[in-house]
Structures are given as structure tokens and as C-alpha cells.
Amino acid sequence: MRRTVVLIFALAAGLAFAQAKRPQPPGDAPLKIYFIDVEGGQSTLFVTPSGESMLIDTGYPGLGGRDANRVLAAIEHAGVSRLDYLLVTHYHADHAGNAAVFAEKLAIGTFVDHGATVEQGDNAAALYGRYVEARAKGRHLQVKPGDRIPIAGVDVTVVSSNGDVLQSPLPGAGAPNLLCASSQPKEVDDSENARSVGTVIGYGRFRMVDLGDLTWNKEHDLACPANKIGTVDLYLTTHHGLDRSGPAVLVHALHPRVAIMNNGPKKGGSASAWQIVHDSPGLEDLWQLHYAVDGGAEHNVPERFIANMDQADDHTPAFAIELAARKDGSFTVTNTRNGIAKKYDKN
């Protein structure tokens, strides 16, 4: 009798363990986002509950494979073996530089971009040529404002592309922006930066915005005379926190709960751009991929919110900021350097 009871208990325990180990249904799982340290470039990995993946930008090329290896390590850590989408916001080396490397090492389903480069010169032509050669290995999706990228379970809406921005507000947006009256334009930018593919990524009630390196005047056009994007939970700082982007007229209208600055130790994180984000109404926290050397104590967040404190560009290891978002709008941000995680409850 005792053996029978023990056997029944063991079977029940095994069943409970199996149930605990069983993967969560997709509806209960979070959208995972990895903000990868590429020293003031950009590379952000999204993994949906169904296992589909999208990488926005690729970091700098060369440098002994520094950024390519960091991104590949993040992809492996995330548990995916291919990229369903590779979105290249624009054709600068810190964003498009490793597309060819990844096309050699990974299966890439669809390449997303704004169309042909607008920049001239040997370096620009070589960078774009390598990208086009890599792009030929998958499908190609050239997007315009208002388009959607069909990744399963997540709403990815294009709000800027090839120098154009949304003309009509997104659902729930469109409120008049009182800051427009005092907003001042900057010099017109004809570079690839102004052509950046900007996206709003939604998962249930969670919303974030990534505008690549979109510059000041184009961001103004997204915000004025009415805010075409609406409010977001997360703002990934435009253009690494350089003062050529990120006007208050847009950042403050977005009313983000949290911002992540994708700066390097000596690139981005400028004092004026940092201050605009820091002063955004309703901001709960600002996180940084790096300590900004030129910012000093006054223009850096507390150390616990900074992923990388090292001032060298080739430091090892390189730490990421990870985010897990749930459909109810709640999300958790984790600094992988120190393990500090903070949960932001649903609105």
C-alpha cells in the first residue's frame, strides 16, 4: 500500500513538474525587446510570444566583429535562430553596417527599408551596395508612412520613411499640440537621417516608438499642428540622444512613461537632448545604454539605470537593456549589468 501511495505521489509530482515546464500559451507570454550595446549605433531585437523576430538595425561593421558578435550573441540568448524581419532604418554604417554579415550567418525572411540611398560618394555607394546584395537573399519590403509590417502578434506601424511622415493621426492620436507655437526649426537635413524608417510598435496596450535617426524638423512634422502618434509607454531616444533630434515638441507630446537612450560613452547623450527627455511630463524613468562621458553627473541618470559604465569602445562584456511587455500595458525593464529590474504597472 505504501509503495502505491508513493507511486501515485511521484506521478502527481511529475505531472505538476511537466505542467510547470510546459511553455506558456502565446496569449500569456510577453513581447521581449533587447536593446543591444553597439556603442552609440543602434540594434534592437524584438521576439514575439509566437517566436517571430525582428531586428531593427545592425550596429557598426568591422571593428573585429565587435557589434556583429554582440548582436549575434543577443539573438542566441533570445532563443531564435533566424530573423523574420530585418528593418534597416537608413543607410549609415552604425545602422546598416552588418546587414551583409547577418545575411551570411542567419536566414532572414524579409528586409524592410525606405528605398534607395540618397547619399553620394564611394563609402555611401559601397555600404548601400553591400546591403542590396544581402537583401537579395530574402524578400524585400519598401515601406511608406501608414504601412504595417506583418509580424505575427505585434502591430508595427510605419510613421516615417524616405523623408515623408504620417499625414493622418494614428487611432486615438490627433490632439492639438500646444507646444507647436514655441517650437523652432533647425537647418534642413537632406541626409539619410531624415529618411529614417520610424515605427510605432504595439503589443496589446503597450506602445513604443523608434524613429531611427529622424531629425528635428521631420519630428516636428509628426507632432504639429497635432500629435499624430499619440502617447507611448516607451520612447527609444531618436538619433542616440544627439541634439539634432528629439525636440521637446515631439518628446513631451509622446508623454512616455519610460525612455531608453541608445548612446555610447562619447556619442549621443548630449546634455540638451538628455534634459528634454528628463523633463518630459509623466516620465517615470530614463535608462541609458552608456554613461555619457561629456554629460557629467548632471546629465546622466543614477548608475543603477546605466547598462555600461566603461568608457572604452571595445569593452567586454557589453551589457544590454532588456524589456518584457505584456498585453495589459505593464512591462519590466532589466539592466543586465547589475540585474536590477523594475516593473511598470499597467496604466
User: What is the fourth-level CATH superfamily?
Assistant: Ribonuclease Z/Hydroxyacylglutathione hydrolase-like
| Beta-strand percent range | 15-25%
Specify Rg, calculated over alpha carbons: 21 Å
Whole-number count of domains: 1
Overall spatial form:
globular
Read across the widest sheet, the strand sequence of neighbours is 6-5-4-3-2-1-16-17-18
What is the residue-mean pLDDT, rounded to a whole number?
A: 91
Number of strands: 18
Name of the level-1 CATH class:
Alpha Beta
Query: Which structural class best describes the helix and strand composition?
Result: alpha/beta
Helical fraction: 10-25%
The biggest beta sheet is recorded as: 9 strands, mixed
N-to-C SSE series? HEEEHEHHEHEEEEEEHEHEHEEEEE
CATH topology: Metallo-beta-lactamase, Chain A
Distance between the termini: 55 Å
Low-confidence stretches: 1-26
CATH-derived architecture: 4-Layer Sandwich
Total helical segments: 8
Structural overview:
The protein has eight helices and 18 strands. The longest helix has 20 residues. By secondary structure, the protein is of the alpha/beta class. The protein has a single domain, classed as 4-Layer Sandwich (Metallo-beta-lactamase, Chain A), CATH 3.60.15. The chain has a nine-stranded mixed beta sheet, covered by helices on one side. Strands 7, 8, 9, 10, 11, 12, 13, 14 and 15 form a nine-stranded mixed beta sheet that branches.
